[in-house]
UniProtKB/TrEMBL annotation:
The lineage of its organism: Bacteria, Pseudomonadati, Bacteroidota, Bacteroidia, Marinilabiliales. Transmembrane segments: none annotated. It comes from the Bacteria. Keywords: NADP, Oxidoreductase. InterPro entries: ADH-like_N, GroES-like_sf, NAD(P)-bd_dom_sf. Residues 50-117 form the Alcohol dehydrogenase-like N-terminal domain. It comes from Sunxiuqinia dokdonensis. This is Alcohol dehydrogenase-like N-terminal domain-containing protein.
Amino acid sequence: MNNIVICSNNVVEGSVKYLDHFFLEKVRIPIAIVDQKEPIFLGEENGGNLVLLKKNAFSLNYRDKALLFEFLNRMKKQMSGEDAMYSAIGSEFVGTVIKKGINVTEINVGDRVIPVAPYPFHFNKSLLPGIPSNTSSKRYQLFHKDQLIRIPEHMPDEIAAAFTIAGHTIYNIREKAQIREKENILITSLKSNTSLIFAEAIKNLDCNVYGLTTSDNFGEEFERLGVKKVFKLEKHLTNLMHSQEITQFVRQTGGFDVVFDPFSDLHFGRLIDCMGFNSRYLTCGFSGQCKTVEQNNNEYIGKTLPEAIPYLIIKNISLIGSCLGERRHLKQAINDYISGNFNIPVDSVVSGPELSYFFDRTFNDPARFGKVVYKYDD
């Protein structure tokens, strides 16, 4: 079965099924399709609680960018002589159960499943919390039954392969935000996948949703997600109140009641002055995750945290961090998908040998709008 991997620079044509490359932060990264055979599975391993999956599709997230460079550095350190090295990549997937342990009763052979990633605690105390796989492109993979959840029959693979992290993260943040009627919500980095999905998750709430982005495009797409107005972010601004348009908005409304910011190191110091009394600032990440990347031009701009604290105190602003969520958040997202109240914006679905397009579209292409999913076709 085909298996998508990143690989060391000494991999040559003929040693793999297909060899390609793409560039990330000016670094050339070899990628390949290799063959993976189905592993032997007896059904009694780990107390009979394991499930063997064959992956149907997978997708990459912002965190995978950092993991990709980590894998590359690890391969460089571990390489000896001319030995070629490979690593699967990816945090999300959908797979079909092909075998299961003797004590697995909730999941059956033939079921399609996605990973469960509860954090900071796993409901099964014997399992580590968080994302269960950093190698989701691996075609065959074993999981404990409590690391998986069945999906509805009518959910297509391209949606399922991008569902887990969004379901946990966004529904946890939506709960913490405690959005009230008629409140003004600002979503930063609006074109990022996380922000698009947050907009999708709150589009049916009775609130006013605004966006902040450097992009000049996608006005109609944002409007379909329920975004009332999009503010253009000029990269050089140290304070959003230096924007006449935003200043006028704050004077008319008293400021934003909720700010969702997926990249706190890009926006936090610039937007504190735009927030209203008793408002909530929520973040689930930061852009500077790739510590191994030399080309990182995202410098922190705006008030530092010590400079911002007086504003937080005077305005009673709640500063809320969030990472993933509980199993119930993912289940709620699935239920809302079933009822038609939630979906995952998908930019494109890639199959076959279009590896460079898949990776480049995921990480580099400014025209991307939503998740890019790789779907196995063999």
